[in-house]
Design brief:
By secondary structure, this protein is of the alpha+beta class. It folds into two domains: about 140 residues, no CATH class; about 55 residues. Helices cover about 40% and strands about 25% of the residues. It has a five-stranded antiparallel β-sheet.
Length: about 220
């Protein structure tokens, strides 16, 4: 678990970070469905935890989920579909010699967009699984923003497979112009800390772990 400590603010004065109000799901009276997965499938174990994290932090009275990465990927994906469909339809209805320029243009655009989609996912979205923000009102309007990345570590002779989270917490004011606090924390636990022998997820344990990391990130300055 790594932490670095300093404090920053827009006016140069040290600010004491406030503890974020990340409520336990139990306190929100949310009904749960039993989640059961294949313990032998590490990809399924990870994606199930990712989805549970999104539901928890994006739930009532928590953070407002930012869907920018999903929107970009969907826009690029649907653009590829429309270009491929339109090019194929035009090439089918038009003589080969007349359709060559349009078909080649469509192929080039399709390859370009799929390449952009791949590069975006790798270099920009990366391991990010959740981005959320919310505004709080005290003596001024402040904005809390969290960005969470996840990663699955394969098993080794000395340890079981692990699930790792990296939480970046930023609190600012003046529409993000004045930084009040920036904290980052990273931690990992074995998948067996969240799943039992039958592959049933202990959602309470997992959500409390996530909640604790967000609170620690808000209390530590980077």
């Amino acid at each position: 678990m790594a932490r670095r400590k300093t404090a920053e603010s827009g006016d140069g004065d040290a600010q004491q970070p406030s503890t974020p109000d990340v409520k336990p799901t139990a306190a929100l009276n949310v009904q749960r469905e039993v989640i059961k997965v294949n313990n032998a499938n590490q990809s399924e174990l990870k994606h199930t935890l990712d989805d549970t994290l999104k539901r928890f932090l994006g739930g009532p009275d928590q953070f407002k989920t930012i869907h920018r990465h999903t929107d970009v990927r969907l826009a690029l994906g649907w653009s590829c579909v429309f270009i491929a469909s339109g090019t194929a339809l035009y090439g089918y209805q038009t003589q080969f010699e007349k359709s060559k320029f349009v078909v080649w243009t469509g192929v080039i655009l399709y390859v370009l967009l799929t390449s952009i989609q791949t590069l975006y996912a790798y270099f920009i979205e990366g391991r990010t699984v959740y981005v959320g923000k919310r505004k709080t009102f005290t003596k001024r309007i402040e904005t809390e923003r969290i960005t969470i990345e996840s990663h699955a570590h394969p098993s080794s002779p000395s340890s079981p497979p692990k699930y790792e989270l990296s939480v970046l917490y930023i609190r600012s004011t003046n529409n993000g112009k004045s930084l009040l606090h920036r904290g980052k924390i990273q931690d990992s636990l074995g998948f067996n800390a969240f799943y039992d022998e039958d592959g049933v997820l202990d959602q309470v344990v997992f959500e409390e772990w996530v909640r604790g990391l967000v609170i620690k990130a808000a209390g530590d300055a980077e």
